[in-house]
């Protein structure tokens, strides 16, 4: 009699363990999909915000006709490098100015073209800046973060 | 012997019950995780739509009419409005883009006609619209129904 009771409990326990095994495999797959879905969603949000902000910076570059000093003045900052301007944003794409802070998560960099083609390194990201043609002010405006490039445009002002 | 058997039976039952409870709790946790991810994704999609649509629409309207003297900032019942002038034949028309009664609206009227804000075609829900011109730079700021504001700056070839 006792053997039968033990056998019934044992069978149920074995069935439950097999169920839990399959559930573990399935939930691991689902958790992986959830993480991927969240990352794709965040990537889409970053692209939307980056597109908007890069467009605004490019329009300002055209408004100052490619003068980097005037462009930095629009952002109330002094220009450190004559052909480069960095603008920092936090996780919600709120502008933080031209000085990097602890809450900086995204960067928009304006790289003005010179007479020769250049290769500029933004952390691990290599950006090719084409040479400027005569009577054209040209720049590469790129939004990037630690993972790499988010969005970039090449803006020209004739 | 019987009492020992009964004790084992109770322990077996409790262990199995505890294992079942762990399984049920884990299943519930996975469902909650999935619901949270779905909610977050939908919220992000909604924010992207609110963020992108109004500003892109206004930016494209301005670029289509970017000729000298054709983009003007005005007001509709104390709210900022964008006026785009265009000449059709020998008559001048104006496209007014403004926020009225919680909606972004657009209306095309003749220059000598009186604007009725209610007659505008609703584009989307919008809380407010702000326009600021600084030389050739026009900054458009929109606030969605949730109160979140975004702005875009455009270089216009025409002045106000």
Task: Indicate the topology.
The complex is a heterodimer of chains A (158) and B (160).
Chain A: H1 2-63, H2 68-74, E1 84-89, E2 95-97, E3 106-112, E4 118-122, E5 125-129, E6 137-145, E7 148-157
Antiparallel strand pairs in A: 1-2, 1-3, 3-6, 4-5, 6-7
Chain B: H1 2-64, E1 71-76, E2 79-88, E3 91-100, E4 103-110, E5 121-125, E6 128-134, E7 137-143, E8 149-155
Antiparallel strand pairs in B: 1-2, 2-3, 3-4, 4-5, 6-7, 7-8
Can you walk me through this structure?
The complex is a heterodimer of chains A (158) and B (160). Chain A has 158 residues and is an alpha+beta fold. Helices cover 44% and strands 28% of the residues of chain A. The longest helix of chain A has 62 residues. Chain A is elongated. Helices cover 39% and strands 38% of the residues of chain B. With 160 residues, chain B is of the alpha+beta class. Chain B has a 5-stranded antiparallel β-sheet, covered by helices on one side. In chain B, strands 6-7-8 form a 3-stranded antiparallel β-sheet, covered by helices on one side. Chain B is rod-shaped, with a radius of gyration of 30 Å. The longest helix of chain B has 63 residues. The N terminus of chain B is likely disordered. Chains A and B meet through α1 of A and α1 and β8 of B.
